[in-house]
Amino acid sequence: MNRLRRVPLDVWFEPLIIVVIGAGYLLWYRSTTFTPTEQASLSWANLQTTILEHIKLTVVATVIVVVVAIPLGIALTRPTLKRFEPLAVNIANIGQAAPAVGLLVLFTFWLGTGFRTAIVGLVVYAVLPILQNTIVGLRQVDQRTIEASRGIGFSGTRTLLQVELPLAVPVILNGVRTALVILVGTATLSTFIGATSLGTLITTGVTLFLPKLLVSGAILVALLALIIDWLGRLVELAATPRGIS
């Protein structure tokens, strides 16, 4: 009972929201009459492909962002590169500030349409949360803790790996969760440049004036974002060292 009380509210409350929304959508789906176009778009075979492609876009973009942003954030907190931090953050902020559709269109002129272009646009758009949280997480580590680790003979690298990064994990993973949710939503726009995603349902619903298809696409994107956010929260809790809230 005590262990359950220590579990954060969002860890068990978010799945309840997912179940309620999912069950509500299934009930609506079974009781609604669809046009032939809607039936074709919402068939399981088509939905399976669309959802998997959307997840693929999100996961590939997230992996690339993590591989780029976390090491860069670590490097920018080291004394030798600290002076470049404002420049790097401002450059990353350009991608976040630019409209997502405009960003994807600009990359289309350079790289053409398709999956690769969508990935590049998504990576540029999602770098800032992870980069900034990595820097903030490492910056907030108590300097006295770092000095103590160096005082007992830890090297700079060992201090980083065994002291600084474990203490910064909650903040860094929070940035990763934020980036994941951003990417799930932004990936819907990849349909405009020829990449398959759940945005295809939304744009088809808007173009052909099929509100049921539009609603289905929006709900599925919301459910996917909630599920990924919840899974990210579980990873964050599991990776956070004991004693750190």
UniProtKB/TrEMBL annotation:
Keyword set includes Thylakoid: no
Keywords: Membrane, Transmembrane, Transmembrane helix, Transport
Taxonomic classification: Bacteria, Bacillati, Actinomycetota, Actinomycetes, Mycobacteriales
Subcellular location: Cell membrane; Membrane
Membrane topology: Multi-pass membrane protein
Chief location bin: membrane
ABC transmembrane type-1 domain mapped to chain residues: 51-232
PROSITE patterns per record: ABC_TM1 (PS50928)
Gene Ontology BP annotations: glycine betaine transport; transmembrane transport
Domain of life: Bacteria
CDD domains found in the cross-reference section: TM_PBP2
Protein name: ABC transporter permease
Family, per entry: Belongs to the binding-protein-dependent transport system permease family.
PANTHER family in UniProt: GLYCINE BETAINE/L-PROLINE TRANSPORT SYSTEM PERMEASE PROTEIN PROW (PTHR30177), OSMOPROTECTANT IMPORT PERMEASE PROTEIN OSMW (PTHR30177:SF4)
Cellular component GO terms, alphabetical: plasma membrane
TM stretches of this protein: 12-31, 51-75, 87-112, 118-138, 180-202, 214-232
